[in-house]
């Protein structure tokens, strides 16, 4: 079986949910790809005051994406920084622990893929509260073996009250609609970005035809242990790092919804086009999963001639519920902030997408 099927698989996994603060809908579709390597997580009630949403785009296999969909949000909850109210630090630690644990599993994942998939297939197979914490604590590289060679992007959005924290590693993306205007809350980590290129070269890698070492077309990911073998460098300085950009935004009354999606969507539509599409659909459709399904169908290519619209597709729309009596939030008219690599960014407004 090649990279593409003879006809696309258009069956969709869709889901809707809500709580007192948000309502969400999501949909995912295999499309033309021979296998489905996307995964996702949607927990409107991660705890009593927090919602968690994430998309994970696998490459070289689906195991790492499935692993993250099941465990990453659990690790955010368990970190001591989370209990202290520091969501940014807790999610950053979770990204690092993800690839560290995958390194510890190493070739076991390659040899026993079916068994591992059976354990982690469904993000909802357990709530994680009764699971032993067997993730390794070290954040440095583990270089005694080569696996797993598969990996995934990770883009997550965590909402608590009026604070939205977005963490991203890779080229999945989170976009917010503010009065119909699209603002990127994450940056696509492509190898030709100056910051990424500098790290890749310093770590001993190279870029050929826009790909890391001629093979991987993104510069940050969880997994991909073949690019994290330098024992003399910390995790954030490896050729391909799991280190996420963290962006913290204070929401205001003008904020309508966010969209998280894998690059199967963003390769076909710009951030503003997606926001416009959601707005248009919401005029006649109240079910957010149906809005996502229609976006997937719009992006699906009629053939595999040029590759665009042929990827797996996953999209989540999270709509903010408005309080019955609207109150002005402090500093509520500030623009969403553009993420600064490897740091928290607040207060810097930016223009454009």
Could you please describe the fold and organization of this structure?
The protein has a domain of 246 residues: PPM-type phosphatase domain (Phosphatase 2c, domain 1), CATH 3.60.40.10. The protein is 25% helix and 28% strand. It has nine helices and 15 strands. A hairpin with a 2-residue loop joins strand 10 and strand 11. Helix 1 packs across helix 3, helix 1 crosses helix 5 and helix 8 packs across helix 9. Its EC number is 3.1.3.16. Its cofactor is Mn(2+); Mg(2+).
Topology:
Layout: E1 4-18, E2 22-33, E3 38-47, E4 50-59, H1 63-78, H2 80-83, H3 87-105, H4 107-111, H5 113-120, E5 151-152, E6 154-160, E7 163-169, E8 173-178, E9 181-184, H6 194-202, E10 207-208, E11 211-212, E12 222-223, E13 245-250, E14 255-261, H7 263-266, H8 271-282, H9 288-299, E15 313-320
Antiparallel strand pairs: 1-2, 2-15, 3-4, 4-5, 4-6, 5-12, 6-7, 7-13, 8-9, 8-14, 10-11, 14-15
Helix pairs in contact: 1-3, 1-5, 8-9
The radius of gyration is 19 Å
Name of the top-level CATH class of the domain at 4-127 and 141-187 and 245-319? Alpha Beta
Helix proportion range: 25-40%
Q: Please state the average pLDDT score.
A: 83
Succession of helices and strands: EEEEHHHHHEEEEEHEEEEEHHHE
Briefly note the structural class of the backbone: alpha+beta
CATH homologous superfamily placement of the domain at 4-127 and 141-187 and 245-319: PPM-type phosphatase domain
Tertiary shape: globular
CATH topology category name of the domain at 4-127 and 141-187 and 245-319? Phosphatase 2c, domain 1
Per CATH, which architecture of the domain at 4-127 and 141-187 and 245-319? Answer: 4-Layer Sandwich
Domain PPM-type phosphatase: 23-320
Organism: Pyrus ussuriensis x Pyrus communis
Protein name: protein-serine/threonine phosphatase
Cofactor: Mn(2+); Mg(2+)
């Amino acid at each position: 079986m090649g990279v593409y099927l003879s006809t696309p698989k258009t069956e969709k996994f869709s889901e809707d949910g809500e709580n007192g603060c948000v309502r969400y809908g999501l949909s995912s579709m295999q499309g033309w790809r021979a296998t489905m390597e996307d995964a996702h997580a949607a927990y409107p009630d991660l705890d009593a005051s927090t919602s968690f949403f994430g998309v994970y785009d696998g490459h070289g296999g689906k195991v790492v994406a499935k692993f993250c969909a099941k465990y990453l949000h659990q690790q955010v909850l368990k970190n001591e920084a989370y209990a202290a109210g520091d969501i940014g630090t807790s999610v950053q630690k979770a990204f690092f622990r993800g690839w560290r644990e995958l390194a510890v599993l190493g070739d076991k994942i390659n040899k026993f893929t079916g068994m591992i998939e059976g354990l982690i297939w469904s993000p909802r197979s357990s709530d994680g509260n009764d699971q032993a914490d067997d993730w390794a604590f070290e954040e440095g590289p583990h270089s005694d073996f080569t696996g797993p060679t598969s990996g995934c992007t990770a883009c997550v959005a965590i909402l608590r009250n009026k604070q939205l924290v977005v963490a991203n590693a890779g080229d999945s993306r989170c976009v917010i609609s503010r009065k119909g205007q699209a603002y990127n809350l994450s940056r696509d980590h492509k190898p030709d970005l100056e910051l990424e290129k500098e790290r890749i070269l310093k770590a001993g890698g190279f870029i050929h035809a826009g790909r890391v070492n001629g093979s991987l077309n993104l510069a940050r990911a969880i997994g991909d242990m073949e690019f994290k073998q330098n024992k003399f460098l910390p995790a954030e300085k490896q050729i391909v790092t799991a280190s996420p950009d963290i962006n913290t935004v204070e929401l205001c009354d003008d904020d309508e919804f966010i969209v998280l999606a894998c690059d199967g969507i963003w390769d076909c539509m710009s951030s503003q086009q997606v926001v416009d599409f959601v707005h248009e659909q919401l005029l006649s459709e109240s079910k957010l999963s149906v809005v996502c399904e229609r976006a997937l169908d719009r992006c699906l290519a009629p053939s595999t001639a040029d590759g665009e619209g042929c990827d797996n597709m996953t999209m989540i729309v999270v709509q903010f519920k408005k309080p019955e009596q609207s109150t002005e939030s402090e500093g509520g008219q500030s623009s969403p902030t553009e993420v600064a690599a490897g740091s928290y960014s607040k207060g810097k407004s930016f223009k454009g997408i």
